[in-house]
Amino acid sequence: MPFIVITLILSICLGIFLTRKYENRVLIIWGLITMLSIAPFFSWIVAMLVAVNAGDGFAGVAIMWLMVPILFLIGVGMLGAGVYKKVTGENL
Predict the structure, then answer these.
(1) Which of 41, 47, 53, 76 gives the lowest tally of CB atoms within 10 Å of its CB?
(2) What is the mean pLDDT of residues 30-50?
(3) Total of domains in the chain
(4) pTM to 2 decimals?
């Protein structure tokens, strides 16, 4: 569990650092961070907390199966919005 929390915190710090460095690519950076680190790690943390509180591992798996695709699709949307904004130059 500590490895997952440390990895999640480091990836969020990396996102903040890259956002400050590349201000015009904020949506692309956060879309990738959301898809690659926040979706699996945050959903694993929440799933384990639910599984421990419910006393059933299947509840944790169910929560994880729901959270990972939803957070991943949010990341895909952010990435797509960033690429679309970069290509067309439109203000979203």
Answers:
(1) 53
(2) 94
(3) 1
(4) 0.85
When the pLDDT of each residue in the chain is averaged and rounded to a whole number, the result is 91
d(CA 91, CA 86): 9
Measured between alpha carbons, how far apart are the two ends of the chain, in Å? 38
Residues 6+ apart with CB under 8 A from 76: 31, 35
User: Residue 62's CB: how many other CB atoms inside 10 A?
Assistant: 15
Compute the distance between CA of residue 18 and CA of residue 91 in angstroms, rounded to an integer.
21
Burial 67-89 (b: 16+ CB within 10 A, else e): bbeebbebbeebbeebeebeeee
Q: Which helix (H) or strand (E) holds 66?
A: helix 57-88
Tell me how far apart the alpha carbons of residues 35 and 60 are, in angstroms, rounded to a whole number: 20
pLDDT digits (tens, 9 = 90+) for 58-68: 999 999 999 99
